[in-house]
Amino acid sequence: MHRNVEAVVAAGRRLGLDLQIRSFPEGTRTAADAAAAIGVELGQIVKSLAFLVDGRVTMALLSGSNRLDEAALAAAAGGTRCERADARAVREATGFPIGGIPPFGHATDLPVFVDRDLLAHDEVWAAAGTPRDNFAVAPAELVRATGATVADLAER
Ligand code: 5CA
């Protein structure tokens, strides 16, 4: 197992989750790739997006079929300005590369917001630290484990 995946599994265990990892050699770098490889709806893929809200790295866990409404994330986080974090800032704050960012187990303590649309599914799939490894989780468990705030984060 890749060391990133071991770290995510260990973080999950500390949060009370027994993660079953599935690896896809063909790659699951984007939400569309992940949905095709896993064989689930695009909306069941968790996009773990790192944005800067008033300069603070903030995680938005978005349904794979949605685009982030940056103003909505800023408002949910109690801020005003929201912008995409660059790849280096993302790596520093989360400890993981873009395309493999897990929803928890980050290198630094980041505020987490969950897209309400994820709650419509029985099971959602998130990256486990690499652009190949994924795990399934019930959305309510994801919210509990991440201590996330649920918000309407999608562009409509
Ligand atoms: N493994 C898949 C599904 S779990 C995954 O990680 N998808 S993702 O959506 O969470 O990660 C890809 C996202 O990273 C893209 O939607 C895009 O918003 C973002 N991204 C891609 N390139 C960059 C970049 N250079 N800087 C910041 N964000 C980027």
Topology:
Layout: H1 3-14, E1 21-23, H2 31-38, E2 46-53, E3 56-63, H3 70-76, E4 82-84, H4 87-94, E5 112-115, E6 124-127, E7 133-137, H5 139-146, E8 149-151
The structure holds 5'-O-(N-(L-cysteinyl)-sulfamoyl)adenosine (5CA).
Q: Can you offer a commentary on this structure?
A:
The chain has 156 residues and is an alpha/beta fold. The chain has a single domain (3-151), classed as YbaK/aminoacyl-tRNA synthetase-associated domain (YbaK protein), CATH 3.90.960. It contains 5 helices and 8 strands, in the order αβαββαβαβββαβ. The chain has helices at 3-14, 31-38, 70-76, 87-94, 139-146, and strands at 21-23, 46-53, 56-63, 82-84, 112-115, 124-127, 133-137, 149-151. It starts with a helix and ends in a 5-residue tail after the last strand. The mean pLDDT is 98. The site of 5'-O-(N-(L-cysteinyl)-sulfamoyl)adenosine has 21 residues, from helix 2, strand 2, helix 4 and strand 6.
Which short descriptors sum up this protein?
single chain; alpha/beta; YbaK protein; 8 strands; globular; binds 5'-O-(N-(L-cysteinyl)-sulfamoyl)adenosine
Q: Provide the CATH architecture.
A: Alpha-Beta Complex
* CATH topology category name: YbaK protein
Give the bound compounds.
5'-O-(N-(L-cysteinyl)-sulfamoyl)adenosine
Largest sheet: 5 strands, mixed
What is the rounded distance between the termini? 39 Å
CATH superfamily: YbaK/aminoacyl-tRNA synthetase-associated domain
Q: How many beta-strand segments?
A: 8
- Spatial order of the strands in the main sheet? 4-2-3-5-8
Poorly predicted regions are none
Number of helical regions: 5
